[in-house]
């Protein structure tokens, strides 16, 4: 896909995020929107996946370690054809398969249940290790939050991945700089992030995570990197694409009301017109 | 009972893994720097490419096992009960239990029979913790025969399984030539009509000895071995309650949440019966040789005998 086509898809993914969280009257729009370009690039360009055969053996794996941003994940999966886009409106509803956090048992395309922060990267490491042991060529991708990496288990997993030289593993840190109680620096600074991963024997890349070309370049560089896993620190804007949500910690875990929803959709619509 | 053939169930674990590993190429063993103690070292020697040492990082190890299982491996995750069920509880619950992944947790060094290491390493809470996870099968084998059979049954079962192994050598109680292990089925080792002693794990041998002592006093005690704590053999427990009227449970585990609680849960609903729960009371353990601690905490045959006499 061209960059323009990917940007258009990302807008559709963002509309799905805003719509589903509005319908759920709960959820996490901020971190879903910050990672929307990453979700889009992964599912429309990077990953070897097939919506018609979500469990195919040689598929690339993806683990959303920051599982609370499921609205972004689900919207990318739905737009890619894993399940109907209309179903996004059932997010978090009683009886819906679209649980508040990713559920691999019931959601087509989800490779790992996740959401309790810090745990997903270990599972991704297990998947990457399995490929190495079996001599298979699929790759594993894991998206973490910048607040999430305060969890110690992340660094247990990083140590193991570096030790095992898992060059089929890519960790992307969505560095939107905000967590529930404030900026990540104020709460408990994870900085410097890239240097920490480098110390755990990762190849590291820093990018603007809301720029498709930079995402493309970084993931290509990760594929070309041998002998060590890659960590991409993606500098992003929390709430990206909806003006009143951008860089506003209040939108970490809050649903828009009807008025806010209408305004957000109008902004995303206009942004789409600007991409023609 | 074969007293001269004592073997710790942690050794049975290692041996069973080697036997299974020869046949099953998707079996993989994970350790957290304790292969020498969990006795999976024999597997590491036989199949080095299928032994993954995760270092001292049990939470990460559970996640790695979860990831491996989604890619077709059947991981046996090995560490002490304290770290498997205790430290990594939430990883077991959320990364393995919730997605119902086919991961087997081999937890050694359970209970006060850890001995000299003392309270920090004596996990008396693992059965209680693991029992609360939906879909988790919980097994506590009594001897070498049962432990080896349990490992095989765990491999054949699709879904998460927790198996508890001990450090202390245990005599063989399952010496019948027609022995067969059935997941979720208790075994009546001795018949009796006055009281039923339901025991699990290391305590099964002590319960049999206590029953012999009671017999000499004219008390006929039935002895049931419950190797599968979950799912519990409710029918067998209820039958014993109806036929003997009184139930005693014995476990090398806290009296809160383990076998005793599982039996009480079942009986309260199906056949209210007086129950005496013998186990580690609401307290931490301490350092000392395992056999001495078992005696001190009233979990040897004399301790069981005395409690049963008081109870009936």
Give a quick set of tags describing it.
heterodimer, A: about 280 residues, alpha/beta, Rossmann fold, five-stranded parallel sheet, two-stranded antiparallel sheet, 10 helices, 7 strands, about 45% helix, B: about 300 residues, 2 domains, seven-stranded mixed sheet, five-stranded mixed sheet, 13 helices, 14 strands, globular
How would you portray this structure in words?
The complex is a heterodimer of chains A (276) and B (312). Chain A has helices at residues 3-24, 29-34, 36-46, 70-80, 120-134, 152-163, 184-188, 193-199, 212-224, 258-274, and strands at 61-64, 140-145, 169-175, 178-179, 182-183, 203-208, 230-235. Chain A is of the alpha/beta class. Chain A has one domain (3-275): Rossmann fold (3-Layer(aba) Sandwich). The radius of gyration of chain A is 17 Å and the shape is globular. Chain A starts with a helix and ends with a helix. In chain B, strands 3-2-4-5-7-6-12 form a seven-stranded mixed β-sheet, with helices on both faces. In chain B, strands 9-11-10-13-14 form a five-stranded mixed β-sheet, with helices on both faces. Chain B has helices at residues 9-23, 35-38, 41-46, 58-70, 81-87, 89-97, 126-131, 144-156, 203-216, 234-244, 259-270, 290-296, 301-311, and strands at 2-8, 27-31, 51-53, 74-80, 104-108, 137-139, 161-164, 169-172, 187-190, 195-199, 221-225, 228-230, 247-254, 275-280. In chain B, 61% of the residues are buried. Chain B folds into two domains: 2-172, Rossmann fold (3-Layer(aba) Sandwich), CATH 3.40.50; 187-311, Rossmann fold, CATH 3.40.50. Classes of the chains: A alpha/beta (276), B alpha/beta (312). Chain A binds chain B through residues 61, 63, 103-105, 111-116, 118-131, 133-134, 152-153, 156-157, 159-160, 163, and chain B through 28, 49-50, 52, 54-55, 57, 59-73, 90-91, 94-95, 98-100.
């Amino acid at each position: 896909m061209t960059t323009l086509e990917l940007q258009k898809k990302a807008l559709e993914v963002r509309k799905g995020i805003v719509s589903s969280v509005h319908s759920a009257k709960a959820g996490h729009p901020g971190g879903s929107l910050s990672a929307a370009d990453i979700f889009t690039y992964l599912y429309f360009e990077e990953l070897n996946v097939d919506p018609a055969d979500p469990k195919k053996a040689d598929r690339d794996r993806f683990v959303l370690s920051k599982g609370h941003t499921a609205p972004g994940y689900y919207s990318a999966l739905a737009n890619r054809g894993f399940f109907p886009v209309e179903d996004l409106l059932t997010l978090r509803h009683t009886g819906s398969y679209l649980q508040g956090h990713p559920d691999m048992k019931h959601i087509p395309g989800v490779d790992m249940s996740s959401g309790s922060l810090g745990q997903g990267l270990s599972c991704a490491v297990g998947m990457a290790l399995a490929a190495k042991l079996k001599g298979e060529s699929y790759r594993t991708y894991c998206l973490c939050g910048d607040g999430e990496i305060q969890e110690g288990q992340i660094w247990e997993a990083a140590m193991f991945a570096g030790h095992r030289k898992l060059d089929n593993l890519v960790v992307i840190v969505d560095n939107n700089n905000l967590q529930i109680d404030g900026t990540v620096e104020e709460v408990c600074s994870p900085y410097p992030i890239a240097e920490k991963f480098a110390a755990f024997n990762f190849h590291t890349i820093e990018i603007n995570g809301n720029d498709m070309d930079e995402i493309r370049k970084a993931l290509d560089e990760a594929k070309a990197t041998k002998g060590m896993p890659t960590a991409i620190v993606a500098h992003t804007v929390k709430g990206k694409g909806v003006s009143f949500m951008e860089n506003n910690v209040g939108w970490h875990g809050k649903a828009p009301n009807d008025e806010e929803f209408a305004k957000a959709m109008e902004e995303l619509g206009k942004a789409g017109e600007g991409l023609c | 009972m074969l007293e001269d053939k004592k073997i710790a169930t942690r050794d049975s674990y290692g041996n069973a893994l080697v036997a299974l590993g020869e046949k099953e190429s998707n079996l993989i063993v994970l350790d957290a720097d304790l292969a020498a103690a969990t006795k999976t070292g024999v597997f590491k020697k036989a199949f080095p490419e299928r032994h993954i040492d995760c270092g001292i990082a049990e939470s990460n190890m559970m996640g790695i096992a979860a990831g491996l299982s989604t890619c077709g491996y059947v991981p046996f995750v090995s560490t002490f009960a304290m770290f498997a069920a205790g430290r990594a509880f939430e990883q077991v619950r959320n990364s393995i239990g919730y997605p119902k992944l086919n991961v087997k947790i081999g937890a050694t060094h359970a209970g006060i029979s850890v001995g000299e290491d003392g309270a920090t390493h004596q996990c008396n809470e693992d059965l209680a913790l693991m029992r609360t996870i939906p879909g988790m099968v919980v097994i506590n084998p009594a001897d070498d025969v049962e432990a080896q059979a349990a490992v095989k049954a765990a491999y054949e079962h699709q879904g998460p399984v927790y198996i508890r192994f001990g450090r202390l050598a245990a005599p063989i109680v399952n010496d019948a030539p027609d022995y067969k292990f059935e997941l979720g089925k208790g075994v009546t080792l001795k018949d009796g009509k006055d009281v039923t002693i339901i025991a699990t794990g290391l305590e099964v041998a002590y319960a049999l000895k206590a029953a012999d002592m009671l017999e000499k006093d004219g008390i006929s005690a039935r002895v049931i071995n419950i190797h599968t704590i979950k799912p519990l053999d409710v029918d067998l427990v209820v039958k014993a309650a109806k036929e003997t009227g009184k139930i005693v449970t014995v476990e090398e585990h806290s009296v809160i949440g383990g076998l005793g609680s599982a039996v009480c849960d079942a009986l309260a609903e199906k056949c209210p019966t007086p129950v005496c729960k013998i186990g580690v009371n609401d307290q931490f353990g301490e350092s000392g040789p395992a056999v001495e601690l078992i005696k001190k905490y009233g979990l040897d045959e004399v301790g069981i005998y005395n409690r049963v006499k008081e109870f009936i």
